Amino acid sequence: MNNQTNQIAFLGIKEDLTLSDLRYMLSLRGEDQSELFKISSSVKEKFVGNIVYFRGLIEYSNRCHKNCFYCGVRSGMRAVNRYQMTDEEVIEAALFAFDHNYGSIVIQAGERDSKLYTQRISQLISKIHQKTNNQMHITLSLGEQSPDTYRAWKESGAHRYLLRIESSSEELYKKLHPQDGKHLYSARMNSINALKKLDYQVGTGVMIGLPFQTIDHLAGDLLFFKQLDIDMNGMGPYIEHEGTPLFKYRDLLASREERFNLTLNMVASLRILMKDVNIAATTAMQTLDPQGREKAIKIGANVIMPNITPVKYRKDYLLYQDKPCIDEEAAECLGCLERRIRSTGNEIGYGEWGDPMHYRRRR
Ligand code: 5AD
Ligand code: SF4
Ligand code: FES
Q1: Domain range spanning residue 228?
Q2: CATH of the domain at 306
Q3: d(CA 196, CA 292)
Q4: What mean pLDDT is predicted for residues 184-188?
Q5: Residue closest by Cα to atom 16 of ligand 1
Q6: pTM listed for this prediction
Q7: According to the model, what pLDDT value does residue 351 have?
Q8: What is the pLDDT of residue 360?
Q9: d(CA 319, CA 186)
Q10: Which of 285, 337, 341, 343 to mutate to test the pocket of ligand 3 (most atoms within 8 A of CB)?
Q11: Ligand in nearest proximity to the CA of 314
């Protein structure tokens, strides 16, 4: 073993990784990167096993009152055809997941907060539970809401909530969002804290490879996840979208290959740092590398979100360009993902909720 290999092995067992340890881990490439991956894979096997859990992803609506500079469905995008699935379509998708033994589903949409809307979500959650004999775990990803709304949804039967912090650096967050009083870092933090207080299983995450983002920001993001003691994580590469304000900074971006490598190193480093959390192999990884999700699973991720949105809506939910699975029906994605996961030597946790070990342990 050379010195470098020794040093990487040591980081695999070190208790309190520092900002500079993480910065170093994120910068590894080539053979050193492979060493990092060896360690993160063995941590995964030891703490969460080589099992991948499915969460059927329902992209419920692309209506959104926010205007994030990076996003392809931001309210300022005039050309986007706005939709909202009917209750029947949502139930049908949930039943597809149920019939195919997915332990859980995710309902994701842009952000809206009218009383009518939040009540409708509550009703939808109750209906899904009725139709699936309370056998499914439901994750929501519906943005910032008041603690009362989060409470109402939890009482209706939601178990988990995903709210990415996007960047844990307030200074970078400001560059990615309009300064109009509606996109406050502090409000986002309050939301995450409210979700934790309500005893949701809480997931957050960031985009990787953003303009103005440095390795220090990303190492800081990892420490932020640890400090918040999150249960779940979803991180993906930033992918520029032509119609958005951030597109003009595309010359500042690292190559797609570099952004992909950085994302893999973030996943591997988080697995080593937090060991028993659930980490998603995100769809955006597949945009940058045809085997992106499989690669993430091999080195630390243990959750995947097969898209079960009706195909007729998919082209209207393009948060970024070149999103995969635009024309594939749920059944096609399922077959495809099964093959992909088998190729990694992992099993699929059919019929299991796949709650994060971390959530169970911290309680
Ligand atoms: N590239 C990558 N991810 C994006 N998201 C939004 N826009 C983009 C983009 N251009 C992510 C955000 C958001 C999640 C639903 O999609 O992180 O939280
Ligand atoms: Fe709306 Fe989410 Fe897109 Fe921001 S990232 S504009 S909140 S859908
Ligand atoms: Fe959708 Fe492969 S996962 S087509």
Answers
A1: 3-362
A2: 3.20.20.70
A3: 31
A4: 98
A5: 319
A6: 0.97
A7: 85
A8: 84
A9: 24
A10: 337
A11: 3
